[in-house]
Q: What sequence folds into this?
């Protein structure tokens, strides 16, 4: 029997921490600390993940099938044997894209545009 | 070096904080989190102290938000799984839930009583500061003497530790003006009574200063119960009037719901409205003692200080008024907290009931643990699958505990319904022991208690099988399962649980047996009179309508009419009725002529009873010597008295009391003893008779009395006749409280009988659960040993020997349980010795009878599985897996 297809929209809206976590994996596999640093960099420090929050997200995303732990290790020169590397799954990518589209629609609202225009004019 | 130490310390702290996460989470990610934190720490340290502080702020915030979420998520998964398991095994679920519902429900019910009666604060402002004052003359045998008006004035003026004193007494009055004439119990109080008690009205106002002075406008305060039940909660009640003692009394207010303490009054009036209390005779007489005194301690003062303060005043009074406080009596004051007064009689009974219910719950846990243990054998395949999916032993154990706790919570919820259904019955039961029944019910404290014991029950009956099965679970998880017919550890645990159940049941049955024997002994007690075919009716005459001689004429006319009615053997009037605490008795000291009371020796103390001629015949009290009173005994210059055999034995051991003279007023008047009658247990079947002195009604007319008639047939058929004859003399005179003496005796026995019945129900329930437990364990043992039994029979064992073997193994468990019960019962039953009558707490007959009963029924429970074992077909057994 085929498994029930999950809809990415069921997981929306994502919190900023969740969204940026997935976003950090879109450009390649990373270990958790690298994800943490990327999120801080991408958001200019406005979203900072602590160890507790980070691994809470890791566990949840692994259980939901949005990320998987990579079994293959990178090249020895780049590898840190203490680390576990995570990869974004297709489903995880779907969820990230769905959230990005949701945010885009939000910003595309006419009022929001006029508001943004006023801000820019100032 | 120092910075390295600081770094290590920070890492150690972080590692400790990780313990806040669930075990599985820590196993999976704990090491990674430590590495990540160490990296963050290094980065933060480069930014200096602000960076480190910021790191710790974010880390702690993250841990304290994520850890609870992880626990919650795990609990949610476990709970969902548990509910699915419950649905898949409806039979097991129902048995467990119902068993737990009974055990938890019983505890909730009893706790709701204890909470309402013993734990909740009094419904008075700062109720712990309220006390009742007691005068005592311990050397004369008086430990609770009423106060006179003069004494209350002295203590009020001279004390330094009380914020206020208030007087109280209760009387029955006849009220007219709101429908039919009503005879009501009324609290008669000083104007400051409700201020002292700390009570505010729900309607109108309460008494003001001065309203207890003679000449003040007559006013009334209604109790909440009367206002609600009789006046329908009329919002216009204030201003309504009642006529009493030829005066119009106006209702000024309604009290809030309060316990029926000190008495079950329906109204309150100020002392000025009571003609007896406000008479000069009572007000001026230091020895006219009829009042109870309540007081409020000053803030920060304890009972000891109050007692010391009042005893100083007592010693001054003793010196100032030696006639009123003879030195030989040892006059002293005592202080009793009101909470203790209200609940003291109930405390032991309720705590024993709670202990009994607690033992039943423990037994229920043992039974359910056994059921769960048996079921776990069948779940090993399921556990193997879970191991494949990554579950650890800790996770599985946590899952099992969650399942058991959810079962217990469901059982607890059902138990609440059981307890709620029994609330009104419990309130009626509790009312026999205490006036504080208004707060009994299912409230937030009781809900919290139920939740707490449900969780504790779930953990207990979940932990026992989980711990016993740890090895098996670990093996199933690591090897992926396979058939396991049970280990030694599990087998031992099951046997221990059965043994524990037998021991607990035995203890409960002993308690029930002792109580039942106690009640049986009480029922055998000769009360000193013959209660069959005697009807008692209370006919209390109005103080203002009937002067003493008019009251005497009323009763004499009534008796004359009743005695001549067909079906009436005899009739009499008495101030009190034995075993019926409705009318207070009078007690005091007497002098015997020719025997002056010496210094240091207390005078004889007696209970006075005022009766009409024919009383002893009507009551069936034997006349042992001399004669009864006659209608001629009405001359004050020739007073007579009758004493009981107890008084005769104490004070006339070597002489004939007939013809001797006694005085109750220090020699002013003397009465000649004309008869000696048998002893009567006035105050209770479990209380020894007191010394009694009977006085003829004609010489001491009373206005509150009970009319007694002995009939040939059923006395209740005469109740209309009595009312008819009373109304023939006075159409407005109420006749109340018509009860046969059998009913009064039965009512007295009701409290110990109900307590015994409750304990017996618990014990019976415990026995049934235990028998089910024994039967279940034996059946499981037989099914697991089918192959072995088959082999034995194939090798020549007879069916009888197999039956004996299995039966013996079951009975060994029962015997061990009995031995443990034997050892455990005496210290527990000793706690209930104050509830027992005529039987020791270690009564050998009870212990023997209960042991034999348990052995017999246990043998019956073991017999069925033993017979099944004996009927095993060896060929089928040898082929079975």
A:
């Amino acid at each position: 029997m085929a498994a029930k297809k999950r809809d990415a929209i069921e997981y929306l809206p994502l919190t900023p921490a969740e969204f940026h976590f997935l976003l950090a994996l879109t450009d390649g596999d990373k270990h958790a600390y690298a994800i943490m640093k990327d999120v801080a960099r991408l958001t200019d420090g406005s979203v900072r993940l602590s160890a507790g929050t980070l691994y809470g997200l890791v566990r949840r995303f692994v259980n939901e099938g949005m990320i998987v732990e990579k079994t293959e290790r990178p090249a020895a020169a780049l590898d840190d044997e203490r680390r576990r590397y995570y990869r974004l799954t297709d489903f995880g990518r779907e969820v990230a894209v769905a959230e990005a589209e949701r945010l885009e629609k939000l910003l595309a609202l006419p009022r929001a545009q006029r508001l943004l225009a006023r801000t820019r004019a100032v | 070096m120092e910075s390295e130490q600081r770094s290590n310390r920070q890492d150690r702290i972080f590692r400790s904080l990780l313990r806040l996460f669930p075990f599985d989470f820590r196993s999976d990610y704990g090491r990674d989190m430590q590495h990540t934190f160490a990296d963050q720490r290094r980065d933060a340290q480069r930014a200096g102290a602000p960076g480190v502080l910021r790191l710790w702020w974010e880390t702690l915030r993250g841990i304290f938000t994520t850890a609870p979420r992880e626990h919650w998520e795990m609990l949610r998964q476990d709970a969902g799984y548990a509910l699915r398991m419950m649905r898949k095994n409806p039979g097991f679920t129902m048995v467990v839930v119902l068993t737990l519902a009974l055990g938890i429900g019983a505890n909730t019910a009893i706790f709701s009583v204890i909470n309402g009666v013993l734990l909740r604060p009094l419904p008075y402002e700062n109720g712990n500061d309220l006390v009742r004052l007691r005068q005592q003359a311990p050397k004369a045998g008086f430990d609770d003497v009423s106060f006179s008006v003069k004494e209350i004035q002295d203590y009020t003026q001279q004390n330094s530790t009380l914020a206020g004193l208030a007087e109280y007494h209760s009387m029955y009055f006849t009220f007219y003006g709101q429908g039919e004439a009503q005879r009501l119990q009324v609290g008669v109080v000083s104007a400051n009574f409700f201020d002292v008690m700390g009570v505010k009205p729900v309607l109108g106002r309460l008494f003001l200063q001065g309203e207890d002075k003679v000449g003040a406008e007559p006013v009334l305060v209604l109790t909440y119960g009367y206002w609600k039940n009789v006046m329908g909660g009329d919002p216009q009640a204030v201003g309504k009037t009642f006529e009493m003692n030829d005066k119009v009394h106006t209702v000024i207010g309604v009290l809030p719901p309060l316990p029926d303490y000190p008495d079950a009054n329906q109204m309150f009036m100020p002392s000025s409205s009571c003609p007896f209390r406000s008479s000069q005779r009572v007000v001026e007489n230091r020895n006219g003692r009829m009042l109870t005194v309540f007081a409020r301690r000053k803030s920060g003062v304890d009972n000891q200080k109050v007692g010391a303060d009042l005893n100083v005043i007592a010693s001054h009074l003793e010196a100032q008024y030696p006639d009123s406080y003879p030195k030989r009596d040892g006059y002293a004051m005592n202080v009793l907290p009101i909470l203790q007064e209200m609940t003291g009689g109930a405390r032991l009974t309720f705590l024993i009931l709670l202990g009994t219910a607690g033992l039943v719950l423990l037994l229920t846990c043992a039974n359910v643990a056994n059921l769960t243990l048996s079921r776990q054998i069948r779940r090993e395949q399921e556990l193997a699958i879970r191991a494949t999916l990554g579950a650890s032993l800790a996770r599985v154990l946590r899952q099992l505990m969650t399942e058991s706790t959810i079962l217990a919570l469901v059982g607890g919820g059902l138990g609440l319904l059981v307890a709620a259904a029994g609330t009104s019955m419990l309130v009626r039961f509790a009312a026999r022991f205490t006036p504080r029944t208004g707060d009994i019910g299912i409230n937030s404290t009781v809900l919290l208690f139920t939740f707490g014991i449900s969780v504790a029950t779930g953990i207990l009956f979940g932990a026992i099988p989980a711990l016993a099965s740890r090895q098996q679970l670990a093996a199933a998880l690591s090897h992926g399962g396979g058939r396991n017919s049970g280990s030694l550890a599990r087998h031992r645990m099951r046997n221990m649980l059965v043994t524990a159940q037998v021991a607990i049941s035995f203890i409960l049955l002993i308690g029930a047996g002792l109580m039942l024997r106690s009640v049986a002994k009480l029922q055998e007690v000769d009360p000193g009179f013959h209660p069959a075919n005697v009807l008692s009716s209370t006919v209390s005459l109005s103080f203002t309508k009937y002067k003493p001689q008019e009251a005497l004429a009323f009763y004499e006319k009534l008796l004359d009419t009743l005695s001549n009615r067909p079906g009436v053997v005899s009739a009499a009037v008495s101030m009190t009725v034995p075993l019926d605490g409705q009318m207070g008795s009078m007690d005091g000291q007497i002098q015997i002529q020719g025997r002056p009371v010496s210094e240091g020796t207390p005078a004889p103390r007696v209970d006075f009873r005022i009766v009409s001629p024919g009383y002893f015949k009507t009551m069936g009290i034997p006349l042992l010597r001399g004669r009864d009173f006659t209608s001629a005994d009405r001359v004050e210059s020739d007073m007579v008295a009758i004493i009981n055999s107890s008084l005769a034995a104490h004070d006339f051991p070597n002489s004939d009391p007939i013809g001797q003279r006694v005085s109750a007023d220090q020699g002013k008047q003397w009465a000649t003893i004309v008869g000696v009658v048998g002893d009567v247990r006035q105050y209770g079947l479990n209380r020894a008779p007191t010394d009694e002195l009977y006085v003829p009604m004609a010489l001491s007319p009373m206005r509150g009395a009970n009319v007694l008639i002995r009939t040939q047939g059923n006395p209740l058929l005469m109740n209309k006749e009595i009312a008819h004859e009373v109304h023939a003399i006075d159409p407005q005179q109420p006749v109340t409280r018509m009860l046969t003496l059998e009913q009064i005796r039965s009512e007295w026995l009701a409290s110990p009988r109900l307590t015994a019945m409750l304990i017996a129900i618990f014990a019976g329930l415990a026995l049934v659960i235990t028998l089910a437990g024994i039967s279940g364990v034996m059946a499981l043992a037989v099914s697991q040993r089918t192959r072995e039994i088959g082999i034995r029979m194939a090798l020549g064992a007879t069916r009888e020997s197999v039956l004996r073997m299995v039966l013996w193994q079951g009975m060994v468990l029962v015997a061990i349980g009995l031995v443990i019960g034997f050892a455990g019962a005496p210290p527990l039953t000793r706690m209930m010795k104050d509830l027992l009558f005529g039987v020791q707490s270690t009564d050998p007959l009870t212990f023997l009878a209960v042991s034999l009963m348990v052995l017999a029924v246990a043998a019956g429970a073991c017999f069925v599985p033993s017979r099944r074992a004996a009927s095993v077909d060896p060929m089928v057994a040898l082929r079975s897996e």
Q: What stands out?
A: The CA atoms of residues 626 and 842 of chain B lie 45 Å apart. Residues 481-485 of chain B have pLDDT under 50 and may be disordered.
